[in-house]
Amino acid sequence: MRKVVKEGYEKGDYGKAFRLHRVRLTKFELTLFKKLCNLLPEQGKILDLGCGLGIPYDKYLADKDFNVTGVDFSKKHISMARKNVPKARFIYKDFTKVNFRPATFDAIVSFYAIFHIPRKENKELFLMINKLLKENGIILVSLGTSDNEYSSKKDWAGAPMAWSTYKPKEYMSIIKNAGFKIIKAVFEGELGDKEYHFWVLAKKVPSK
Ligand SMILES: C[S@@+](CC[C@H](N)C(=O)[O-])C[C@H]1O[C@@H](n2cnc3c(N)ncnc32)[C@H](O)[C@@H]1O
To answer: What atom in ligand 1 is closest to the CA of residue 9?
Structure first.
């Protein structure tokens, strides 16, 4: 699956199809991002998993003076992100294999990226995210909506692409079991819409 996804983003043109004309956050996103920012300390450290071109999300957060680090395994996207958001730091790497010290970040975010790893890895991923967060750390993630172990398209934004997702109920249980308290869980769009996603804002449960 990783090969399809990695090659797909290098070969296709995700930026042109989805991001280059999109400078601002949507109203839906703004509501969630404002909540996220209000929960963070000034200049807090934020990690973005599967950051893409860095716009609009990392730019929004970096412009609010947060200390943003983005990770992506597309060389093309990382080099565009560095140009788009010079204030942030970008690392070329598989986001499931990052090696930061435990309790490094105030928030970890991920938009439209977790559905590109095999869903059986989600449990491990959220445990890793929990470990990398400071006490009371926050997550904001967008996820899939269907029970789909693997699906692919031959031409998505100009190249083959693959996805693997759970239903929201399963994501909620994975996130809670990884040590988070859900603050807000909300759908972007409706069943049948082109963009139909499940967003979760959650807080790391204090360790006893
Ligand atoms: C749909 S794009 C979203 C990009 C960005 N979050 C946004 O919303 O504009 C998915 C991104 O995740 C990256 N990605 C997918 N799987 C990855 C992995 N295992 N490690 C690192 N990056 C990954 C892709 O290269 C791509 O840039």
So the answer is: 25
